[in-house]
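Before relying on records like the one below, remember that each one covers exactly one chain. Contacts with other chains, cofactors or solvent are not represented anywhere in the record.
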Amino acid sequence: MAYFIILIYSFFLLLIFLFSLGQLHLSSHYLRRLKHKKDQPESKGFLPAVTVQLPVYNELYVIERLIQAVAEFDYPQDRLEIQVLDDSTDETVHIIAQKVVELKAQGLAISHIRRPKRKDFKAGALQYGMEKAKGEFIAIFDADFVPPKDFLRKTLPYFQNEKTGVVQTRWGHLNKDYSLLTKLQAFGLDAHFSVEQGGRKAAGSFINFNGTAGVWRKSCIIDAGEWSADTLTEDLDLSYRAQLKGWEFEYLEEVVTPAELPVLMPAIKSQQYRWNKGAAETAKKNLGKVIRSKIGFFNKVHATFHLLNSSVFVSLLFAALFSIPVLFIKAAHPELNLLFHLGGIFLIGFFSIAYFYWISTKRIYPEKSFQYYIKTLPPFLIISMGLSLHNAVAVLEGLLGRKTPFIRTPKFNIQNKKDSWKENIYLKGGLHPLTLLEGLLCLYFLFGVMAGIYLNDWGLIIFHAMLSTGFGSIFYHSLRSAFQLKRG
């Protein structure tokens, strides 16, 4: 039994180690990309017809802000079409209708599109709108985004290359400084939208459309098999199908489209659940196609890590759970000490991840990078560990094929600390059963800390302390939100 536990523990550590090496490799490609930055291509009068799609479902607090931002695009009105793809069932419908009438009176080609039936969620709405779209290119924005006026002027020139199917921009953050939770989300997203996306592009590997703040060539969508709702991440799924067809994607780190970050733990969890489960579903659907494709070996490796990215939470959770029995096995079997000492090589993985986030921080916040990094990395890692149970369950459900509906992330229209979420009608109280398990895991890893002290084995104490703090923090924020929502 002892050897079985060590084998399982080592296996999941190895997976984490390999993932971290993949991030290190992306970091090296990203740094190389910064040294060879390309200038934006000249438009040369390239002003094609564009359809802007705004998929909406009950976005009472933010929809008017989004429509107004798109209406102010610096682009010829006779070549711009706006579709508000509205599946709403509340007051949002009337707000959109009034705004559309107002903008139509100003000469804007904007339509309020409502489907007979809300089928296939966001993917279905995008497909329904695309079939009516007049534009050769389709820009997509979720309700919590506020695109800049020059968005189309900066993105469309890249489509002069007829092989380009998608142009994706970097997400910015309207409310990064609202709380510790928003700061940590921004920290993680910044790394994805700098080192990950930029590194994959520099390596010539597959990248992905992030569901919003990007532009598709309409013929690329059609050629790739159109929008599909058989995964919760229809954006990642279509991205892989398109690139397997030979389409090229552009990633523009310098073009920033700001968005609002969730401010409450239930909203963060719903977003994380959809992203992680959807990624697992997409891996199950497309990984075999990637492996059988004719793309290069290293591109297959990067694509495999990309599609299985969310699975790192499964590895982290199981490695953590087995780490406490390993403490006692180590104490009972001193003859295995050499084996455990060799395990120190996995520290390379930690330093790889730390370096990955340092590169991102230095790039995006050059004036305060060190101070910001030191303050933010430890709590980010702790909260990420605390979310490992929630996210691992989402991943396992995706891999096992358990289907669940598309759960939207509530939007708040919160940009500073004076704004309040307490009147938000989309928030629901109640505790998920996993919240109790998160509280129990906090105690489990606190026991791991005490066991390490008792056994005079200090090797995993910091790891167990971070896990205990992480699960305790997630449990606290989940409980606090549920209590506040119930009281409100």
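The longest strand covers residues 248-259.
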